[in-house]
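Our preliminary data section would be incomplete without showing what the modeling component actually yields. Below, a chain of 327 amino acids is followed by its predicted structure, encoded as tokens that our downstream tools consume directly.
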Amino acid sequence: MWRGAVCSFVAYTKSVRPSLLRARDELPSALQTSVDAFERHLMLERDLSAHTVRAYVGDVISLLAHLPTAELTGLDLAAMRAWLGSMLTEGASRATLARRAAAARAFSAWAARRGLLAVDPGPRLGAPRHRRVLPSVLRPDQAAAALSAAQTGAENGEPVALRDRAVLELLYATGVRVSELCGLDIDDVDYSRRVVRVLGKGQRERTVPFGIPAERAVRHWQDDGRPHLVGNRSGPALFLGARGGRLDPRTVRRAVHDAVDAVPGAADMGPHGLRHSAATHLLEGGADLRSVQELLGHATLATTQLYTHVTVERLKAIHDRTHPRSR
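Predicted structure:
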């Protein structure tokens, strides 16, 4: 696990945006040192994803740049409130303020444990509650139509089309995150048991089953498509980009957008929309909440419960549309 964390840290450092590096460089050297240490803590000790680390570090840099002094001792409740207030004035959303407040609390708690702050002001910092928006999902017939569109595109045997079909089938069949799908290696797929081994958030490994359509699509890609794209940079990656390297999440998003766009009336969505759709359809088909939690790799059941609200809303819409005494 430690080795995996180190590898993730190395990959993260290569992906840090130049704008974030410039903002960090503008801080006084003492504050830069604190940011660097907090960044290592998030990546190596808490084992957070690269995306979360980037977001937290960016928020902390913004917070420290707003301090009235060049010393970390200037970080108190008044300074944190003033920072959030300035963003509220600039029109930041409730979701943004909630995330930034969480980042500030995480940093102040860490600084207090390290002895960099005498008192942790974070617990007294309030922020607007983030209203959880119900995700857009495809109806089962719309999901089938999107997958059918991908299958039609793959009928000519073109490697990229075969890959995109396999990607869509596996995303919908398993509900894995796009980062998890792009991180799959050939050996992670067990065709005899029809399961795939996934490395999720926090380096947590889980095994997810998939059905016969996904098996056929992935086999077709691996046997007839992947050999045409494999190159020096391919390694053991299951899915490859057009230049032979490991498939990029942005390419997956484009493939999903294109397939869903071919379905009349379907909401525009990316890979996470297929994940939402898969979870909703599992629950509507009778799956219990704990099983769906395990399949999706959610750390808490509260996250999975969001999909029960989606299902209830859909049932209410069906009732309103079809029951003679609904209105």
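Confidence is low (pLDDT under 50) at residues 1-15. The chain is about 60% helix and 5% strand. Preliminary results of this kind motivate Aim 1 of the renewal.
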